[in-house]
Amino acid sequence: MEEPEMQLKGKKVTDTFTESISVLANEPSVALYRLQEHVRRSLPELARHQAAMQRQEVQSQGAIYTAEYDRSARKKLMDGSVYFRSVEGLLKQAISIRDHMNASDSPPPPID
């Protein structure tokens, strides 16, 4: 009669032990520990990616600034073409006047 009773007590002990192990394995602090392990392993890689992205952002901002500056300079040159044409016309007038004055200051060529 002792054997079935011992088996029942043994089963109770193993069931209780199994339940305790199950509770311990699924306890929130264990989950937090695993989460901490995961973060510790993956954080350096994420930090490297973030640094690389920041470097690329700085390079992109520099390129964008350069392109905008070039576009602005080109637009100003195009807008200034009116003034360049005006200066060109004035220079042509000045050259014409100089040539006319030089022609009137020189004596007429001798006739043979």
UniProtKB/TrEMBL annotation:
- Subcellular location(s) of the protein: Lysosome membrane
Q: What is its main location?
A: membrane
**Keyword check for Membrane:** yes
Annotated Gene Ontology cellular component terms: BORC complex; lysosomal membrane
Signal sequence extent: none
InterPro entries, per this entry? BORCS8
Query: Keyword annotations for this protein?
Result: Lysosome, Membrane
Question: Superkingdom, according to UniProt?
Answer: Eukaryota
Which family does the record assign? Belongs to the BORCS8 family.
Name of the protein in question: BLOC-1-related complex subunit 8
